């Protein structure tokens, strides 16, 4: 049975994050031929509506308000509740991002609805929408469905391929007036950390360093390799705890969960808590001095060697190929 599915487009620095297009593709699968309605919340977001439509949304509803210029869960919840009332959807899909992880459970609880989080695949079986999600730190997968009420889901970035952009596609972009009031928190100022370039959670290539990198300076060859590959730098908790890099780079059970096309682990032993954050990467390359290191058990390609010799060699070879 066809359904009407809402998708929240996530705006960062004036453009839509890639996970928004993946969420549209997920919504298409969940709608089973029904309608996919994009939602944009913020200030001056109307112009981004076409981007959602060209990636597969049938139409877009925007909620613009001065109080929505910065994300607050209160403000966004009020905006989305107004859209839900107006559109009356069967389900809502968010990215499994900091924003989606904050907002989706809040709304689902408010509306007494079910939420399936960190979804990696969506399929239809016997008229039901089945969501696949990893459990036990990625060691197993479970399939779940929501049997009653509004269906909430957050999708893991880099898992569900976005639909190809169709620049000729058009659709209605309407604005909804929402009364945004009584916010319990107001953002006074956003102080951004120096950006490392590519966003780790959406990166297609990640070069990650562990305690084997040995120092802050030891990350330099990894940064160089990431730059040549157009990727991001990540780290194990071992490297973060040793103060070789910032905790924002930590990948794993208590860090970010990533699924790039290529993950290059340098001087990382492969502790279970690290694997929880990266073992679903499409291709894993491990560089480690110890041939018995556990990381080789999940690696597609293993290089036993000193990372300070291997990484610059890889950089040089990729540079020849790619530049
Ligand atoms: P190590 O285990 O010390 O490994 C360093 C590796 O570098 C070794 O295999 C060594 O052979 C290799 N090496 C050394 N020199 C070189 C060289 N020159 N060239 C090549 N290889 C070299 N960890 C995470 O990563 N993410 C998490 O989110 C996380 N959450 C945790 C949550 C909990 C509750 C707990 C208890 C732990 C968590 N940990 C997490 C920590 C985890 O258990 C490991 O301690 C950590 O991942 C180890 O980091 P590492 O592999 O960099 O260091």
Automatic annotation (TrEMBL):
It comes from the Bacteria. Pfam families: ETF, ETF_alpha. Keywords: Electron transport, FAD, Flavoprotein, Transport. Residues 5-191 form the Electron transfer flavoprotein alpha/beta-subunit N-terminal domain. InterPro entries: DHS-like_NAD/FAD-binding_dom (IPR029035), ETF_a/b_N (IPR014730), ETF_a/FixB (IPR001308), ETF_alpha_N (IPR033947), ETF_asu_C (IPR014731), ETF_asu_C_CS (IPR018206), Rossmann-like_a/b/a_fold (IPR014729). Belongs to the ETF alpha-subunit/FixB family. This is Electron transfer flavoprotein subunit alpha/FixB family protein. It comes from Niallia oryzisoli.
